[in-house]
Specification:
homodimer; 3-stranded antiparallel β-sheet; alpha/beta; 6-stranded parallel β-sheet; 405 residues; Rossmann fold
């Protein structure tokens, strides 16, 4: 590490302008990631807000914490997107910015063919459900993925609570825009990019080996509860009723687990007992039930604090399960002691801890987290600054109902 | 959509060369994503392979399907990285490539300060466990995230089977390299970038609103089984014993659900019954138990095929849960009918279906999936091509044990 961070160079995406017309998690997260890398992201919503404007969680007064969390550091404008005049203004903004991210069907005025006529080197990324145009959301994509059938302990599928496919798709969106921007700077030419949420899932399933595993070995793993596949790992209940997760990846971890628990000799017996090589990840996976049985009483006899201290000192990978409340209230990683976070004043919500992009650039640092705008907050400023609209122009647009009062 | 794809323009990252020295999921996935976008990624492993070389799943003969799936489209070289001579060759390669991705501690010869002396505009991204240098892996980061405590139906934490934090961190790695590459092309200067796996988790928890929710409302949601939070969604068992997922996001979806099931009138009664506004996502979430109770008999009286057909025709978001086996064998999305996939011949594994990057670039298309190299397959070719080593040089290096036989 260099030790010092150069704060004079602009953020990596300084000077890049992006229009977003989207809702929910994936596309807003993709463009927020680019905003956090320094891009000027202008989110255009219909008058009154898009379908996610009041999404839960909300405050007691009804402000969407969800919306605010996924739109940090953007500018927000609202237009009557059903009117030709509103569409024309949005088209002008897209042409000026040169980059568009959307999860709308991209037909008519929002089609690539129409927009590229206004901005020849346009980069436009559209998120869809499936590659062949069917609707899909995180929950339906997840059902198809196979993962719910190996999550938990029994045969009934269990959804993960994390909207993982939306988050992964959001990251792919940022990657797609960055790659196309790089390419445009060499070629001078833009392009249309498509991403299907279902394809982000399918690519991940393939990249993690599940497809080839079935094609090669004929089947895959069943549900393993909190156990790891292909290595040793398990969760245990401690004497004070907490749950801790232990993961053994390397042989060093395995030796450390024996040292920390004083169970080296008993653990070693399992090799002969089951005729497995405990010096391999696969061997430890095969012996997992016996290892569980040897370790469980040790955890049941120690508090979470005791077991955590002993395992950490020996260098075993371990972690205590915690609720979101515990994470936010007690974990120093989730506090302004972690440079990831800063306290921001979020309009309508209050003072909250907010993350910047988790990448730390030592040369051209990304800015700390900044609040989300309120809906339509930047309409006048953006139309004046980007499109040169005068105060009179804005009044006229407002009278005609293209802008909100 | 343009309809046609220009196949004459090179892939977005053509001409970019990246060295990877890493293992497991996140860093290999990050650099594989860049390889799939067109970069020339050279993975350097120690002689005999890194700690992930034989990771499960494996074939009957012991070839790692895991490794092959996470290293598609890269080149592989092996060096004695413990020797000064091996380190010097790796340093030369890093200096030539100009970009390094690693999850090693980056001390000594692999420190940024040392490497930048050999390549002044170096971009180097290092993945660590936590921002303050503690070890962490997906499983321990997940335990701390809060998500296991709301996954499944009861109070005991349930790990998701998807290594979501590793995948998300891999995507952030690709974003970090792309952003720094863009910045370098303007500034002429490289930089060091750090990413902590724990920070990728914490940023996601914050971006999804969980931190602000607790700070504002004092608490968050408990486990909801397969139910959605803040909207209506649930899984149901059909008459043929299948499980299907239903998600209602918009008011149109809600009306469609009534139409598809013929239960519009009964569903409408729930509003008065519970004094909630079923025209809002929040209202439907509050009424979820009553909605479940009205819908459950309908699913129990229909087969999965019948319910899927009825719901799809009405435009309800729904999907049948399937195993990985069913996904691979029966789902046309997971076949070469989907342009995401192609059949590749993977050495040591055989003919398998493999995904390219899920982004479809209509101007500068990313290549179809290509196989992973076998370990060390490209050692001689890379040292000759990138560093100009002659056949005699390679023989000498081999005799001294710097290269494998």
């Amino acid at each position: 590490m260099t030790g010092t961070t150069d704060t004079t160079r602009p953020a990596p995406l300084a000077g890049v302008k992006i229009i977003e017309i989207s809702a929910f998690v994936a596309a807003p997260l993709g463009s927020m990631t680019l905003a956090q890398l320094g891009a000027d992201v202008i989110r255009i919503d219909p008058l009154g807000g898009n379908i996610d404007a009041t999404r839960w969680p909300i405050t007691e007064e009804g402000t969407s914490i969800y919306w605010a969390s996924l739109n940090k550091g953007k500018r927000s404008i609202t237009l009557d997107l059903k009117s030709e005049e509103g569409q024309a203004i949005a088209t002008e903004l897209i042409a000026e910015a040169g980059t568009l991210i959307t999860n709308l069907p991209a037909r008519g005025w929002l089609s690539y063919d129409n927009l590229v006529a206004h901005r020849p080197d346009l980069v436009m990324l559209r998120l869809s459900g499936t590659h062949d145009g069917k609707p899909a959301v995180d929950y339906t994509v997840n059902a198809a993925s196979g993962f719910p059938t190996i999550t938990g302990s029994d045969e009934k599928p269990v959804n993960h609570a994390l909207p993982a496919w939306d988050v992964i798709a959001g990251m792919y969106i940022a990657n797609g825009i960055l790659a196309a921007e790089l390419e445009r700077r060499s070629s001078g030419t833009g392009q249309e990019i498509n991403l299907a949420l279902a394809d982000a899932m399918l690519a991940t399933v393939g990249n993690l080996g599940y497809i080839a595993e079935i094609q090669t070995n004929g089947s895959t793993r069943g549900p393993l509860g909190n156990g790891l596949y292909g290595a040793y790992g398990q969760s245990f209940t401690t004497s004070d009723g907490r749950e801790v997760m232990v993961a053994v990846i390397s042989n060093r971890h395995w030796r450390s687990l024996g040292t920390a628990t004083g169970l080296t000799d008993k653990l070693a017996m399992i090799g002969d007992l089951l005729d497995v090589d405990l010096g391999t990840e696969g061997g430890r996976f095969e012996a997992r039930e016996a290892i569980d049985a040897v370790l469980r009483p040790w955890f049941a006899a120690h508090t979470a604090a005791e077991s955590t201290a002993a395992l950490a000192e020996a260098g075993v990978l371990q972690g205590e399960f915690q609720t979101f409340e515990e994470l936010v209230r007690d974990d120093p990683q989730c506090s302004s002691a972690n440079p990831l976070f800063s306290e921001i004043e979020q309009p309508g919500i209050g003072r909250v801890l907010a993350p910047r992009v988790p990448l730390t650039f030592h040369g051209s640092p990304a800015a700390p987290a900044s609040p989300a705008p309120s809906l339509g907050e930047n309409t006048d400023a953006v139309l004046a600054e980007v499109l040169g609209r005068t105060a009179d122009d804005l009044t006229t647009l407002r009278e005609r109902g293209i802008l909100s009062d």
